[in-house]
Amino acid sequence: MTQEKLEIFKYLEGWAEENMLTFLKKVEDSWQPQDFLPDATSKCFTDEVKDIRARSEGLPDEYYVCLVGNMITEEALPTYQSFLNSLNGTHDETGDSMKSWARWTRSWTAEENRHGDLLNKYLYLTGRLNMKQIEKTIHYLISSGMNMQAENSPYLGFIYTSFQERATFISHGNTARMAKVHGDVTLAKICGTIAADEKRHEMAYTKVVEKLFAVDPNTTMVSLADMMRKRITMPAALLYDGQDNNLFNHYSAVAQRIGVYTTKDYGDILEFFLERWGVGEITGLSADGREAQEYVCGLAERIRKLEERTQKWSGSKCSQMMPFSWIFNREVEV
Hints:
By secondary structure, the chain is mainly alpha-helical. Helices cover 66% and strands 2% of the residues. The chain contains 13 helices and two strands. Strands 1-2 form a two-stranded antiparallel sheet. Helix 4 crosses helix 7 (131-144), helix 4 (61-75) runs antiparallel to helix 8 (154-181) and helix 8 (154-181) packs across helix 12 (263-276). It starts with a helix and ends with a strand.
């Protein structure tokens, strides 16, 4: 980041105060995990836990694999806050900075922190899962970290977070709908509430990128093409439970097969942002900017072709059953 680019984000401090922080909710107006969980101080606690366990029996193992994968992804929150604090020009310089970028990072983290807490506690109460294996997977994932390939650039960083928030919104939304189909309306409400948070956060990050296209379209366009060439790295890419060295791919295959998150979703997200940011209509770009624009505008079609090949391959391949330690090594089709 050149000094000139750093000055852009310093200049945008006031804009972020008025246009980004407004997407946050006050603590007193926010939901908390306990709003959805049995009250351990109540005489009805045991009965409420029994109700959760009874409803959980209607959820298939393949659904649990996807839900646990989503939950573990949420639990790796320390990695994501570290990522945001690695971005030049927008990081929290002191740990308690009152600059708008720093306040966003801390408050976003606080809101996201509830997601893993709630899912973890709810899934524990079902009695259907090997919680120690899940806890080990979380431990491994946070220890491993991840490389978003943003190179400490807020341009790349905010593009990445826009895509990732929309992806989690879609994924949690799909688990909400599936939970309702299988008869667990409480779990459906939990996943839907988390999805709504992800959507609100997506709107904030999307607005930042929209502003960057307005004030520095060339760098933003080149950054978008750079991030798309690298392909958005999933936060749980280094998933490991101490047993399965290919756990992320197996989890992703289940999510693809039952429709929690698919290649089609990835293409839809790209098309959504191309339209949302008006990428194809931006003018006045340099040669590098125009080349980047041409690349990203043609990428959606290539992703669609990849989706078609994936579907054909999935339809022709022999089914394979894989054990997942999260569900006591019961086997699920991948």
